[in-house]
Amino acid sequence: MADIIFTPVTTEAALGVNTGAASNVGSSEFVRLHNTAATGTEYLVTLEESGGTDIGTFSLDGSNTVIIRKAKTDKLFAANAAVLACGVSLCSIRKKV
Predict the structure, then answer these.
(1) DSSP string of 42-78, one letter each residue
(2) What's the rounded Cα separation, in Å, for the pair 10 and 7?
(3) How far apart are CA 96 and CA 84, in angstroms?
(4) What is the pLDDT at residue 1?
(5) For residues 87 and 28, is the Cβ–Cβ distance under 8 A?
(6) Beta carbons within 8 Å of 53's beta carbon, 6+ residues apart
(7) Measured between alpha carbons, how far is 49 from 58 in angstroms, rounded to an integer?
(8) How much is the CA Rg of the chain, to the nearest whole Å?
(9) Residue 19, φ and ψ in degrees, nearest 5
(10) What's the rounded mean pLDDT across residues 3-12?
């Protein structure tokens, strides 16, 4: 396991729930995603090109947090507004001892 040290560069906000409401999260390259739903409640997160073509999807379990890398113009949306997004700048990754 490792600790990821980051600096927020945008305000955290709920992701939109469809392609029309997708966000590039302030044109951020790295985005922290947090599912505020209860553990065991998975929501699908979709990464798409600026024109709306899907690049990929993944499920984010409730109470979990991930940081993903995307192109600055790529957009994100989730199956539920319980998924919050914040653009971040990565500072370092430190191994836990």
Answers:
(1) -EEEEEE-TTS-EEEEEEE-TT-EEEEE--TT-EEEE
(2) 9
(3) 26
(4) 62
(5) yes
(6) none
(7) 15
(8) 13
(9) -60, -35
(10) 93
Task: Give Cα 51 to chain centroid, integer Å.
Answer: 19
Tell the residue number behind the tokens 């979709």, with chain if given.
Answer: 46
Query: What is the C-alpha to C-alpha distance for residues 48 and 36, in angstroms, rounded to an integer?
Result: 22
Measured distance CA(2)–CA(24) in Å, rounded: 27
Q: Give the H or E element holding residue 6.
A: strand 2-8
29-38, 59-68, 72-81, 85-94: least confidently modelled range: 85-94
Q: Which residues have C-beta within 8 Å of that of residue 97, sequence separation ≥ 6?
A: none
The token pair at 19 is 């392609």
pTM exceeds 0.90: yes
Residue indicated by tokens 């984010």: 60
